[in-house]
């Protein structure tokens, strides 16, 4: 055996590297598999190689080296076959795939070890990845079987388990949408830098039926009030042309599904603006596409979503009700992939690819098309015609209505090392709705028919344009098994423009261009610059500290102008929120009692005040099945979104920053308590909640009556409220048939002194809400059916009405009300069904063909009532939600 | 399992424990509607009627007659004359600019009151032209309409008050500018109050040929509030703006100036 000369050691955090022996020269013809070539070299020169046989067998080489050094030879082979090699301390040359990390040791013990352990009280650490795309998996549960030791991977897929009793334990890794992985440790197993690979729960066809456990679509019992989702299995649920993550959450108890027109999150009596939505760390201020019918997130670009229904950690702040944390995909680290979805609403494409050894990229794009489903939804929001408009110019038709939405997601991840990475994420999405009226005739034609004008154009404009742009730059590092840092710089911009005007231009007799413009222009622009840093420090297995700081600078502009020039409102507010938090997670009583205490401190520049948010949560595992949980916390909100739903003129919304006077900082106290009972197949989860809400703002748009400049703050009404209820969940988790029953009994009441000194039901109050979700897998088919039942929403009904003659001689109707939200609409219910068929187009092209029917029994659910005064009678016209709507979609993957 | 059963029983009973009373809808059908525009230099004239109640089939006209309405200006009070059909007129009082007027009456034991000030007559009200030529336009011909220079109306508004421009055709048999067979053309357009000191009249301000009165009203805030965006759907119904205490409607002083404009072919 020839000596390997070790020249230098390159020290890294975990291992050292050696160099290839320089005196080995390779000669001859190497033709065949890589395995045969390596075996030949090994025999001839006595070098020991380590490689994946399957991989080396699949690579064919044809080389004619002449007195080539082994190093040159290996370099060339690795370069051409996207491989790399390293030499371990025992002088073995390891050949691995380029994206693989040599420090990570694959853990694949498949049988339980019956001998005696050698190591005691050990620390296990490692990384969990998707076996197919090699992407790291965040928030995967890792548990030591038979003990209460466990944890979850962080955003970068790292985990650390300390005080593991010995080296022969069994590890269980579970992650929603993936097959559960059981790993048996032996005294020979590595204990740090483990690499655990998880397989996607089978959805594609396999020759052999997998009899293993199947994971569900949504997972609900990990932390108090938290629901987890990966988009992997979403397309088995019925949809309306688009898989939608936020719509899927609406199927869980506590998140209202009775808002067919809104994909926004009404969590436990909260409104959508009380939910903090984070996408790769940046805040998304508007989550709506197509009047709110769809959420702005392309599920193809998303890896993981966690939703906290309340009682959330001190890490999150600035919202009263809930937190949605979305982690985008990093892109396949192994190979190029492309995927295409075509549905009745949009086309969706994404591509992912590794770039070199250390980075990967993913780009996804989605755009709606004017399908019958799109038009059906669009028209629902445009059914009203403005009956007071007598100025309709003759000869013009509303026939060039066009509108669409799109979004782009891109993410680039660069791994400095397996313990340190940088990622850049970008999102841009917008809705462009055009309801404009243009001349029908050949208007701009030359000559002008003897009128003496050379050219003219004239049109009535009705444009609505809104969307978001956001990006984040994140750096994270696992310093060691105990200390983790995450730093983020982000930018988010929400824009909304509305142009309702009539105008035009013409060239007069003298040849001058004259323009005319009348109407209303609205513009809302929000900017958010955030910098934050989070630290996690694991003191012992029973004690973990989390702390960090955040600063958000918001700049919000809102302008409202009439007739091109006159700005009625021009509101610009800037403000910063500086926050710091400390959270301590501790285990007591043999790790059965888990207590999380946290404190978040905020300083808000607009009020120059400090806001302190204490939070505490606890869970007690009585036995392996029964767990009690509770959480108490205080929450503040500084930026509020004002939505005024207006059917005639389109919804208007804008964000505003609190000022402590007219628009106070809202606050809420959460009290949550519940329990869960979980067996292998079933889960029963019950949580009761009580939330007090104070300094709520509601907006009432009034034509300003002050003589001087208009101040929008004048129109805010301040009130308080209470949201309380109980969420029940009964879930069947495994098997060919899975599903759940969700039920919420609750109420939301508000009191606004301007409406009267009484409590009334908030507009989003729902007494009973029942959801039934069924999913059944049969051969190549996935079937599912969802049924939703909800008590009718409260609404304000008229007491009476009258007409007044205005000074111009026209009359106008006035509807008078007494009690706000004193009446209720009929109950809302709906059945949706879907069937998807999985097949293979080519060896690397799995496809899914989906059929779904929305509102199968064509229930006429009432959205709202419209009132009119006709001949001294008030006539009520109910406006309805969507009736039966079929949909078909096709999903194709290329590799 | 026993613990579980107890837990479930407790949680199912929980919602019946707490309770804060919540107000529900009730109907009060005795609301009074007042419509009163007090024009400067004229007698006060108001109409009083009953609110149309929802969910009843009573569709009769509902003016309220026989009321004793007191109109007051400084120390002078008088009872308004009941002209029938719910119309009441001041007996001797003539409305004067910058003067405050109030009215009060009882209806079914409820006191209804309101007050207003008569604004000043608009100052420096001028038009850049008193005639405008608009070629007859037939949309079927495919030929474009003409675009004459607009007429610019200006007035003085140093205090950013609200003004309203009303364009009214006063011909007995007006001739339409556009093909009126497909559209019903109004003689008056609805405009919204402006806080500016100018307004442009263009081709789109007129539907007919002939003489037009271009009236500029100086308004009080209570009139402007009538234009508030009160919806007609259950999504956005809110309490109505009114300056009538104990009732609904409007009681406001107005003052105006008029310019005449000729529209010809």
From the structure above, extract its key features:
heterodimer, A: 895 residues, Phage tail protein beta-alpha-beta fold, Immunoglobulin-like, Maltoporin, Chain A, 3 domains, 22-stranded antiparallel β-barrel, 5 helices, disordered N terminus, B: 265 residues, mainly beta, 2 helices, 16 strands
Describe this structure in words.
- The complex is a heterodimer of chains A (about 900) and B (about 260).
- With about 900 residues, chain A is mainly beta.
- Chain A folds into 3 domains: about 25-95, 3-Layer(bab) Sandwich (Phage tail protein beta-alpha-beta fold), CATH 3.55.50; about 105-200, Carboxypeptidase-like, regulatory domain (Immunoglobulin-like, Sandwich), CATH 2.60.40; about 225-385 and about 395-895, Beta Barrel (Maltoporin, Chain A), CATH 2.40.170.
- Chain A is built from 5 helices and 56 strands.
- Chain A has a 22-stranded antiparallel beta barrel.
- The two termini of chain A are about 45 Å apart.
- Chain B is mainly β and about 260 residues long.
- Chain B has 2 domains: about 30-120, Immunoglobulin-like (Sandwich); about 125-220 and about 255-265, Immunoglobulin-like (Sandwich).
- Chain B has 2 helices and 16 strands.
- The longest helix of chain B has 12 residues, at about 1-15.
- Chain B starts with a helix and ends with a strand.
- The model of chain B has no long low-confidence stretch (mean pLDDT about 80).
- Chains A and B meet through strand 41, strand 42, strand 43, strand 44 and strand 45 of A and helix 1, strand 1, strand 3, strand 13 and helix 2 of B.
- Strand 49 of chain A pairs antiparallel with strand 3 (about 50-55) of chain B.
